[in-house]
Design goal:
five-stranded parallel β-sheet; Rossmann fold; Cobalt-precorrin-4 Transmethylase, domain 1; alpha/beta; binds iron/sulfur cluster; 3 domains; single chain
Length: about 290
Amino acid sequence: MKLLIAKDSGYCFGVRDAVDLAYKTAEESGDVYMLGNIVHNEIVVNDLDKIGAKVVRTLDDVPDKKPILFRAHGTSTDVWNKAKDKGMNIIDATCPLVKEIHNEVKALELEGRCIIIIGDHGHDEVIGIASQVKKPIIVSSPEEAQNLRKMKKAGIVSQSTQTIENVQTIINIIMTKAFDLRFVNTICFPTKRNQQQLKDLSERCDVMLIIGSFTSANSKRLHQLALERNKKSYQVTCADEIESEWFNNAETVGITAGASTPDSIIQDVVRYCETLTNIQNEESHV
Ligand code: SF4
């Protein structure tokens, strides 16, 4: 059996930098606080909690003078303003590519366009993008796009981790509704690259493993994309969930992971697969 591992599986640079900053700040300040989990991965969150990076519900729960870390996927303007007004020690781990989406959506609003954000309702990144403008419309599915009214000028951005397919379908529908439409493709390049590597691997391999928490929208999307190409695609959060029968008669196994999956879990899965019968060799996929 041969293992093919997606070259860029796991943490994107935005998540990696944010997690590193949380460790560094906790080390320097004793502890650091965050409004929600830094990544959608329970193992990472528990490890961080042990070294003093704590999750709180509101800014008022942060002890005096202690740092508050704003996570990679961005923070709403209300929360930013409140933290500034309170004179809090803000550690900004917002990914530069998320900041770019904030700038693009504000520019589209200045052009007098009706703002549409293609993304998941209630997702922190989408909440942060929506807070940059006055009356955004959030569209998560083609069905929701069908229900939009006709409009003269539309400006569209997407959540950074959307699939190209979902965005394309929604844009096609909005084209029938808007006279003057401007779309800025804000799916980030690590997401595009991961999705492309996953598609290639799912088509080449007999079995496909996607490692990521079931709370991670990005990992679930990767699993969905894989299933569309290979019925023997499985999402697991760690090596313990793998069932050896999945590999019956398999000659090639592809492995990738969502942007919130740490390297240690990917390595565990690779090691587990290597214990299965007859591994010939392992190679990285470009
Ligand atoms: S998924 Fe993309 S936009 Fe989001 S943190 Fe990672 S690199 Fe940044």
